[in-house]
């Protein structure tokens, strides 16, 4: 669909996948006025196709739009567009194992204009692609590189929005993580450089030996994950106390070393829940590490993961009313 100040949102349509034709002076290419969402559609055993909490994605897209000075997108247009595309692509929704149809809604400044002001022509689009199981050989802990040089987002910046620019900023630290043999990068707050924010694309949780679970409180620069919120609900269902608070990087290092933190996991739409093994950081010219797992996924992590995946794949009662029937 297209948006202009006079006509509002108009011309919604489903078209065959293909290249967009963009003028070289299209605003998004120069000023990155762009936001997106990521979600999945699942084939259920009863033959239905369902998406997970699309109204939560709609609400987050709304908050991102506001921060990026993009127009309001009515939630019926957002959810309706996804429903239409998934129905059209129904035969592409895989079934079996942890497979799904990944859905990517995005909105960008399509006005042809070189100048720094909100665009007066905006395009909203949705694409989709079948996604295989994230963990093909079983769930395995990931290793994390602590980025001490770079922040993902600053206070007052766009960290709480899902905009492309945040990911552009995380590419260099992410490649530094890879150079140190790590799978993911963890970012700290940009003021005190002491508090854990999140990974490049996942939120973090710390499981303590008394059963309580701590997650970094939303700081204004953390992306409010829909999986993060769902985990909070399911962990509480399983009897865990959930604590949202500022969480120091030293608490992570010391907690896993003295055994008070028994499991660390990260969560997001792509991997659902993934155990975190080693945390590594630069210590002068050396690399130091703190390990929270011996290569195995923790019990609490796997119990919460299973509770969530069972709802998403229609194997358990949808007691929180999270699944949205598309077809
Ligand atoms: N943080 C960041 C920076 C992300 O890109 C994502 C993935 N969208 C998440 C957290 C997790 O969010 P969600 O659970 O909604 O996928």
TrEMBL record:
<keyword id="KW-0032">Aminotransferase</keyword>
<keyword id="KW-0663">Pyridoxal phosphate</keyword>
<dbReference type="InterPro" id="IPR036038">
    <property type="entry name" value="Aminotransferase-like"/>
</dbReference>
<keyword id="KW-0808">Transferase</keyword>
<dbReference type="InterPro" id="IPR001544">
    <property type="entry name" value="Aminotrans_IV"/>
</dbReference>
<dbReference type="InterPro" id="IPR018300">
    <property type="entry name" value="Aminotrans_IV_CS"/>
</dbReference>
<dbReference type="GO" id="GO:0008652">
    <property type="term" value="P:amino acid biosynthetic process"/>
</dbReference>
<dbReference type="InterPro" id="IPR005786">
    <property type="entry name" value="B_amino_transII"/>
</dbReference>
<keyword id="KW-0100">Branched-chain amino acid biosynthesis</keyword>
<comment type="similarity">
    <text>Belongs to the class-IV pyridoxal-phosphate-dependent aminotransferase family.</text>
</comment>
<keyword id="KW-0028">Amino-acid biosynthesis</keyword>
<comment type="pathway">
    <text>Amino-acid biosynthesis; L-isoleucine biosynthesis; L-isoleucine from 2-oxobutanoate: step 4/4.</text>
</comment>
<comment type="pathway">
    <text>Amino-acid biosynthesis; L-valine biosynthesis; L-valine from pyruvate: step 4/4.</text>
</comment>
<dbReference type="InterPro" id="IPR043131">
    <property type="entry name" value="BCAT-like_N"/>
</dbReference>
<dbReference type="InterPro" id="IPR033939">
    <property type="entry name" value="BCAT_family"/>
</dbReference>
<dbReference type="GO" id="GO:0009082">
    <property type="term" value="P:branched-chain amino acid biosynthetic process"/>
</dbReference>
<feature type="modified residue" description="N6-(pyridoxal phosphate)lysine">
    <location>
        <position position="162"/>
    </location>
</feature>
<dbReference type="GO" id="GO:0004084">
    <property type="term" value="F:branched-chain-amino-acid transaminase activity"/>
</dbReference>
<protein>
    <recommendedName>
        <fullName>Branched-chain-amino-acid aminotransferase</fullName>
        <ecNumber>2.6.1.42</ecNumber>
    </recommendedName>
</protein>
<dbReference type="Pfam" id="PF01063">
    <property type="entry name" value="Aminotran_4"/>
</dbReference>
<dbReference type="InterPro" id="IPR043132">
    <property type="entry name" value="BCAT-like_C"/>
</dbReference>
């Amino acid at each position: 669909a297209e948006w202009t100040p006079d006509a509002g949102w108009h011309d919604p349509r489903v078209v065959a996948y293909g290249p967009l034709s963009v003028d070289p002076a299209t605003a998004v290419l120069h000023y990155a006025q762009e936001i997106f969402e990521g979600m999945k559609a699942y084939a259920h055993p009863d033959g239905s196709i369902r998406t997970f909490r699309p109204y939560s994605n709609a609400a987050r897209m709304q908050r991102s739009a506001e921060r990026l000075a993009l127009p309001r997108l009515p939630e019926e247009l957002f959810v309706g567009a996804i429903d239409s595309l998934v129905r059209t692509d129904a035969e592409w929704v895989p079934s079996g194992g942890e497979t799904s149809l990944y859905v990517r809604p995005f909105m960008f400044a399509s006005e042809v204009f070189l100048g720094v002001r909100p665009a007066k022509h905006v395009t909203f689009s949705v694409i989709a692609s079948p996604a295989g199981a994230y963990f093909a050989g079983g769930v395995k802990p990931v290793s994390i590189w602590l980025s001490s040089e770079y922040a993902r987002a600053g206070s007052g910046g766009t960290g709480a929005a899902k905009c492309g620019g945040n990911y552009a900023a995380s590419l260099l630290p992410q490649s530094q993580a890879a150079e140190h043999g790590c799978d993911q990068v963890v970012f700290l707050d940009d003021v005190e450089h002491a508090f854990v924010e999140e990974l490049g694309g996942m939120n973090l949780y710390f499981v303590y030996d008394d059963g309580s679970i701590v997650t970094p409180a939303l700081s204004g620069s953390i992306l409010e994950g829909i999986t993060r919120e769902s985990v909070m609900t399911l962990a509480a269902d399983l009897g865990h106390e959930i604590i949202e608070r500022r969480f120091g990087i030293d608490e992570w290092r010391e907690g896993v070393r003295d055994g008070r933190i028994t499991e660390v996991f990260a969560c997001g739409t792509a991997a659902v829940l993934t155990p975190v093994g080693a945390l590594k950081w630069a210590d002068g010219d050396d690399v130091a590490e703190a390990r929270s797992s011996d290569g195995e996924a923790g019990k609490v992590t796997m119990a919460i993961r299973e509770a969530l995946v069972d709802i998403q794949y229609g194997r358990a009662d949808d007691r929180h009313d999270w699944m949205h029937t598309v077809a």
